[in-house]
## 1
Amino acid sequence: MDEITSCPNCGDIFVKNKFRDVCQKCWKAEEEAYEKVYKFIRKRENRAATMQQVVDATEVEEELILKFIKKGRLQTAQFPNLGYPCDKCGKVIQTGKLCAGCAEELRKELEAHTAQVEWKKEIEERSKNNTYFAVDEKYRGRND
Ligand SMILES: [Zn+2]
Ligand SMILES: [Zn+2]
């Protein structure tokens, strides 16, 4: 849905929608930056460039390049060294917030945590169910 908001880059008021999250002026600047990055990275000899090399060559901010990657505008399958650091260990990644190793670790931690929570819930449920069961039995007993 469209909403009127201020541009996160320059503070101008603009209409935000799913295609545009900055104002017209900044959007244009972003498009130009994208063209620059894309032109550079598309060259065969630059395909394996790292983020720093791209930043140096294009003078486009890393943050903006990351934005293009996260939006899927720069296909990192084609540019294996272009990515952003894993939140946990700093390894270059292209999707999500964590590298595969850290994601797996987190999943295990979460699983262990969930199991504990589930177990507590189960105990609670069981004691609740026992009460219901007892009431139910009494009710049935009366009917029989
Ligand atoms: Zn702006
Ligand atoms: Zn990691």
## 2
Amino acid sequence: MAIISTAGLARTFATKSGPVEAVRGVDLTVGAGEILGFLGPNGAGKTTTLRMLTTLLPPTGGAATVAGCDLLRDPAGVRARIGYVAQSGGVDPQETVRAELVLQGRLYHLSKDEAAARAEELAADLGLTELLGRSTAALSGGQRRRLDIALGLVHRPAVLFLDEPTTGLDPASRADLWKLVRRLRAEHGTTVFLTTHYLDEADALADRIVVVDKGVVVAEGTPAALKERYAGSPDATLQDAFLALTGRGPAPVDTTPVAV
Ligand SMILES: Nc1ncnc2c1ncn2[C@@H]1O[C@H](COP(=O)(O)OP(=O)(O)O)[C@@H](O)[C@H]1O
Ligand SMILES: [Mg+2]
């Protein structure tokens, strides 16, 4: 069953130098409980798509259903059922981890007691218990990312949107985050819509990958299917698949646009 489906979803920005077609008509579906890797180079339209699907930005074209609610007619319904972790989190450096978690619970209409209990529960779940009393300014990059995710989970969303959750993290924190995403899905059945520009991350985490470039979907399938199709073998790396597809020479995956 599809928990997200979009049809011709589009967003054009009016700028001084003319219209920028950031997203030019995206059609995709995501199954309930799926981990979807939304992959594409910088500027492909990943964040813009995410901001539309999370109701933060009105589309200029197309339609979408998210968690059973129509994006345009029932944005409040969508908001109640999703969590969103932005590309760079917005926690208050003056506050403690506990205070941020409780505040978020209160924003979702939990009582003081419920919010306090939920903060403890999430901290235990995300390995933040020892850090509850610490100021958010004192957290490491990986700890901070776990807090961002905990904040996105306060209201037990059916769908969690993560925008480049591991950009800037060291390898150990990246591995921790991958484990966390897998566990979320396994234990809570959470659907995870994850953007990344790391091919290895999409390969390791995603059940299915949707590749966007220049505001449109250019490839789609399981990691194995994409490798088979574009590199001739399911044992190839995704990097191989995209090199075969684009005919470009190898380069560091985190800096090179995947032009498909
Ligand atoms: N608010 C905005 N105004 C004008 N152009 C924008 C705005 N937001 C994004 N863009 C442009 O839209 C394109 C897609 O951006 P974005 O969705 O952030 O890509 P990604 O997240 O894949 O790196 C880029 O060309 C970007 O410069
Ligand atoms: Mg982005």
